[in-house]
Amino acid sequence: MSVKAFKLVSAVEREMLMGDKNYINIECLECCGKNLYIGTNDCFIYHFLLDEKTSTAGKTTFAATKQLHKHLGLKKPVSELRAASALTRLLVLCDNTITLVNMMNLEPVPTGARIKGAVTFTVNENPVSGDPFCVEVCIVSVKRRTIQIFLVFEDRVQIVKEVFTPEQPCAVAVDGYYLCLALTTQYIILNYNTGVSQDLFPYCSEEKRPIVKRIGRQEFLLAGPGGLGMFATVDGISQRAPVHWSENVIGAALCFPYVVALDEEFITVHSMLDQQQKQTLPFKEGHILQDFEGKVIVATNKGVYILVPLPLEKQIQDLLASHRVEEALVLAKGARRNIPKEKFQVMYKRILQQAGFIQFAQLQFLEAKELFR
Questions:
Q1: Angle at CA of residue 23, ends 303 and 287, nearest 5°
Q2: What's the alpha-carbon Rg for the chain, to the nearest Å?
Q3: Domain that holds residue 322
Q4: Per residue in 301-325, pLDDT tens?
Q5: 65 lies in the same domain as 105
Q6: I want to staple 82 with a disulfide (CB 3.0 to 4.6 A). Which of 91, 105, 174, 203 is the partner?
Q7: If you ran DSSP here, which 8-state letter would residue 301 be given?
Q8: Model confidence over 186-222: pLDDT tens digits?
Q9: Which residue, 285, 309, 333, sits at the end of a domain?
Q10: Is the per-residue pLDDT at 131 higher than 90?
């Protein structure tokens, strides 16, 4: 049974990006506050300002205003973008090199600081250095079976550690000292400070695209065998039941209490609270799904869309209206971390009361009595 948890809203139309140039494709995205950056296959970076508007009827729309675009001077696609807002820098991966550019004018830093030999990279959102004026970057190196850790400052980079892996890594997520790696045949957790590694489960990266995503402190979400979305902690255990995805998931994102997944035809929404599939949105030709500071963005080769969450209270009321009391109560309890304490207590009492009346009307007197209590 479905819940309307998200609405899909267009953010950047293809004309704004490419006009009538059909050969231009979106390769990667980054969103930081209102700043949206798009990297394309013809080596351009585009910078848009996103303005979110909500009408009196509760309809959300986005107006994207193009700020500027910049060619990187190569004939290769821009493969990854990451913002380091504390440094006002954008980290740009193109042709196996990470370049630092200014977030506002997209000009490379004057020192020409760069990291060479990167296949893919990620930023440590739980850094260990304690320096607010640098970011920790973890790269899968072009060197065989090698991960490198760098500190990136405003105008320079510094290598901190080189770690060797038992097989070739193809995807990485990082939390503190812990690396969660998709290798050729399995996922592992590796502490790059101590060198201790922990096998998670087998996975064939040649058959499917691995997904490795940090979803919170010391916890990751992985695309497991059999179309399962698996949760794993840095200790190599799972504290949540897996969610059932399709076999060919391309990307995954977290927007608590939901895990959102993208495959070739659909966006699916599962609850982390009861692992049930709650919503399916048809979406063809999607190839990017990412969350940025709670904002879930999905893209085709030609356009960018935002998944706008419906207010949790509205979702709970919809569940109660269709007499799905258990699901409403699970979602209400899960909403506790998103709502201020006093407001939550008032809302939760009202929900218990409504649920009690629904059970009472269905002659489930014992259940109703517990809820009224």
A1: 40
A2: 22
A3: 318-372
A4: 999 999 998 877 888 888 888 888 8
A5: yes
A6: 91
A7: S
A8: 999 999 999 899 999 888 877 788 899 998 899 999 9
A9: 309
A10: no
